[in-house]
Design brief:
UDP-glucose 6-dehydrogenase activity; Rossmann fold; binds uridine-5'-diphosphate-xylopyranose; oxidoreductase; UDP-glucose 6-dehydrogenase
Amino acid sequence: MRITVVGTGYVGLVTGTCFAETGNNVTCVDIDENKVKKLSSGQITIYEPGLEKLFERNLKEGRLHFTTGLAEGIKDAQVIFLALPTPPGADGAADLSFVLKVAEQLGNLMTDYKVIVDKSTVPVGTAEKVHAAILKNSKVEFDVVSNPEFLREGVAVDDFMKPDRVVIGTNSERARKVMGDLYAPFVRQGNPILYMDERSAELTKYAANSFLATKISFMNEVAVLCEKLGADVDMVRRGIGSDDRIGKRFLFPGIGYGGSCFPKDVQALVRSSEEVKYDFKILNAVMDVNEKQKVFLIPKIKAYFKDGLKGKRFALWGLAFKPNTDDIREAPALYIIEALVNEGATVCVFDPEAMPNVKQVVGDKIQYAKHQYDCLEGADALIIATEWSVFRTPDFDQINAILKNKVIFDGRNLFDVQRMQELGFYYESVGRAVSKP
Ligand code: UDX
């Protein structure tokens, strides 16, 4: 099939590359000339495990193309995916201007039947708006389909190639057939393609992300309660997760959810609810809990250093909002840095992938270490904000030798409390006992 993907951000690039991998001819369109130049010459623009290999192979074999020209890009396409940004506007609702602008242009450019697919996360009713925007100028038949994306950063290629489900929202038989054929190679294992109307497909994405965010905020509140009642959240997590109705996954307490999806999508669903005069009470609470959670460690740190944080030096491991990505959007580490710097502390950070991105935002307000142990030099405590594998089994002798005090604040519960006690560390984590040697 001949496919066009408009927008070469995270979702667009993964979508385009993975469709090329199953033998389709894919053209990716982006207005950013620099990006298109880089991608055309084989330089990948995002960090995503496994993507580079597929990208290089499909580029070399001529199944993947990049252009800045929308007209040229969609000329022979049967399916056009819109993977454009939908950032939150001033009121928290998703801003559809990028999507609708391209839709209007498509109306002018299309010369035969095409299926236009909303891949970006867009509020309920967007497919209808996109349809109307294309119709303004269109002289040919077309269908608009809602096909939300459920990719997780870090495992996006796997998620795309072996999805738990594919959601296709359309009432058109013709579009349904095209989309079914396109996705058939991805669901061979037996996972379902779920066909539904556009509005249900659009809401499915928001409901999925909001439910997962609710699970996290719920566990974060349980963790607070564990600390207050003297219970251990790891035990409680296992205790409840063994029940199939609850499930083992996504029950890990920490310093809040971040990234490009959960914070934006929960907020957008709350705004959508408000628009139809519905007060989605649970989601408001989910957002409140997450706000507090991002700086959950700060009161603990302040309570430990009774004479204040001014002049103190902290080592911070982990900046990305989660491991295996360089994405720092809504990363809890940024809030921790801000709080510490505002208190007059010095912060030295290390992250395996995300340091260049943080440098762009935070600049020289903090120091950047070459190695995870370098930033411990002269530090009063170590703080852990992201659960990268390299932090999971560190050399505690080395930490002990370099760190000024044997003090660790861990926002991701990486270490066993008992072991830390034996090693002689003051160790505070989330929802568990404090190790006080
Ligand atoms: C998420 C959805 O999982 C994906 O389906 C959707 O398409 C996009 O949003 P992603 O943002 O890549 O994917 O991250 P995910 O792995 O889901 O984690 C989201 C956040 O939740 C991270 O900040 C993570 O640290 C946090 N989290 C996750 C927890 O705090 N505890 C958990 O148990 C799981």
